[in-house]
């Protein structure tokens, strides 16, 4: 793969936080907020990404076999930089640039990089994706987008723009798709069995509405390998990575389940029937021994898929 000679000058505006950008180009499709308490959002995003770190480490290990000695790695839609810093650990000589629409999240990313001792080769780029990547000083050898492309109205155009920012031989890696997470048995002992499947259906409808309401929204068949090929890239590969935390779930996973169900109840309770709303309320009641705060059968199982393709030399 291409290697550039100036990995410490990745953008003209490294660490810049003075440009307003539309927030929301970061991990998790339920975090596209405006007028938000960014410290709270950053904390939630960090907690989720840290929970998923074993999955990300396996994905990055796979990428490291595909991409050798990159000079510049760009994390597009980086949020608070958990994965960006993992890239800095995996590629010890690379310059890392975290790009996001939220300056507060990028401040957290820069602070994290400093704590991890990689701040000297870590930069940030604040602004709307994909356009802000035009400010990169030279092309990327690896451009990563984790569950952020679906926040962009025209996903096909976004991938083409990302591909244009790659060096010849550079790799675009997109984490999209996989399977909905599971964390409870089908029958939890109260309410109607199959709650999570019904929550999935409500979430899918919400996700479709979110996509249609994005600026310049365009509907494309979400065949990610085909979209990467349409962007002019070649040698596509896909691989799915698991996060498998069996019951009894560790505290961090349990807290994530609580946060996930709380957001679902707050955002989508009106789309559930009365029985499911009552079940959710009971699952979230810390005083109830059958809640996810206490029950021993809480687990966490998720599958995320990474699609890669290469810009022709």
TrEMBL record:
GO terms for biological process: methylation. Coiled coil: none annotated. Residues 11-21 have a biased composition (Basic and acidic residues). Residues 1-10 have a biased composition (Basic residues). This is Methyltransferase domain-containing protein. Keywords: Methyltransferase, Transferase. Pfam families: Methyltransf_12. GO terms for molecular function: methyltransferase activity. Residues 74-172 form the Methyltransferase type domain. Residues 1-35 are annotated as: Disordered.
